[in-house]
Amino acid sequence: MSNEKSFEQRVRDSFEKQSFMKTIGAELTSVQQGYVEVRLPANSGLLQQNGFVHAGAVSAIADTAAGYAAMTLLPQLADVLTVEFKINLLSPARGEYLVARGKVIRSGKQLSVSSVDVFAISGGEEKCVATLLATIAHRS
Amino acid sequence: MSNEKSFEQRVRDSFEKQSFMKTIGAELTSVQQGYVEVRLPANSGLLQQNGFVHAGAVSAIADTAAGYAAMTLLPQLADVLTVEFKINLLSPARGEYLVARGKVIRSGKQLSVSSVDVFAISGGEEKCVATLLATIAHRS
Amino acid sequence: MSNEKSFEQRVRDSFEKQSFMKTIGAELTSVQQGYVEVRLPANSGLLQQNGFVHAGAVSAIADTAAGYAAMTLLPQLADVLTVEFKINLLSPARGEYLVARGKVIRSGKQLSVSSVDVFAISGGEEKCVATLLATIAHRS
Amino acid sequence: MSNEKSFEQRVRDSFEKQSFMKTIGAELTSVQQGYVEVRLPANSGLLQQNGFVHAGAVSAIADTAAGYAAMTLLPQLADVLTVEFKINLLSPARGEYLVARGKVIRSGKQLSVSSVDVFAISGGEEKCVATLLATIAHRS
Predict the structure, then answer these.
(1) Which chain C residues touch B113 with a CB distance below 8 Å?
(2) Which of the residues A23, A47, B136, D100 has an alpha carbon 20 to 30 A from that of D122?
(3) Chain C residues with CB inside 8 Å of D140's CB?
(4) Is pLDDT of D1 > 70?
(5) How many beta-carbon pairs below 8 A join chains B and D?
(6) How much is the pTM?
(7) Mean pLDDT confidence for B111-127
(8) Using a CB-CB distance cutoff of 8 angstroms, which residues of chain C are in contact with residue A105?
(9) Structural domains for chain B
(10) Model confidence at B2: pLDDT above 80
(11) What chain B residue is nearest to D85 in terms of C-alpha separation?
(12) Would the ipTM clear 0.90, i.e. be above it?
């Protein structure tokens, strides 16, 4: 009998421990090899001064998607820690909800690099509102 | 009788409109020309999977400090919008609270550049846990 | 009779004025709407201490591709100026030559955002060695 | 008799191997613990379309200063490799020469973070024209 968890289970267990994701209302909506999606309803507690979703909230889900996308390609027990990221806010983040779609573009021994696009969904239409590039460290 | 507001009042009024700062519990603790400080108690709803403050929450206060530092140097009615930022997470963000200290390093006609250091305070000691470099657009 | 130049001609004329591209031996190999390609033979004067192409030379062609991709979507006479960029060096840049492929991901009124992948070509095989994300200002 | 080299000698030996620094005419002007300075005469082969020093040349000396500043704090035989950097071009880079001043802001086990300011010197006056933030990997 194996104690091994699937990469999806490891990501879901770790996400559950992130109290900040609960605070903002984010959900993990897809976990595949090298790809993770995080969904955030654009609720009224997440806004900046003009009524758009705050860059910090956009960054939070994008960073989470970046890190967990990296984790899906790592061995059991390996954790991930964001070293740094850069985000361009392309358009005001408004709509019913946001979706951050993160994919790994390099998975090395000690570091991964992930790229994430964040989309705002409004009336069934998607618009890319931000793009993030992150460097993730592996911890065992 | 003038309707002019001081730069400090303009920043404080705008900060009040950011529901996300209330949601995470952030306060504006200093507003000077070219300099803004935002304080964030490290409460239990802001954490990532290892119990450190989430990079998204760290980014949120750093981005806010960056933008409002830029606003202090702009004329009446000008608003600020983050174009992009890059953040390096230097050490785990843990302690009683965080302080983001943002200063303007270039204030141009259409764009400002701000630099922010984020410190974790624990038992009266400060440690720099993150540094952010942001490009801010001016909107009139 | 019109004095108007095609976007391709404008980009090619501007590239000709960049003495640094001549110094390193870079060539403009494709100019399309929203897309520019710059090719750099990996000659022996471009290396860092381990014999890979220097990150500065990789950045130079990536930045040039980013800016000119933005220029292809702008009106006559508009010039471009890099505000900032971030580059991840994914793998050692070695091979016969490098190709930087830049595309615009947002073309606004005052700013563009371009994304560039740099590939190393060796024995007919391509490998992505760097990715860059740049913010470009428009000047008239 | 020891074979140990001082950190300064290690940095100078490595710099000598960078053919790209010779090609652009850069010199290593100061090597201290946690600090490195690189000087670049603004010669006519380094320019972009408006006659300013090309962002790629600015980045090249800034990246070199970042990496070698990190190396000064590492043990014998450790080499450095840039993982990523972000640079803001604050003002047109023109003058007699540029100086990149890099200092380490975090020196970890596997990674360092360096911050670099680049100044343009003209008629004895200095102006900060760019600021760079880099993540450096250690290789043994």
Answers:
(1) 84
(2) B136
(3) none
(4) no
(5) 30
(6) 0.96
(7) 97
(8) 90, 128, 131
(9) 7-139 (3.10.129.10)
(10) no
(11) B86
(12) yes
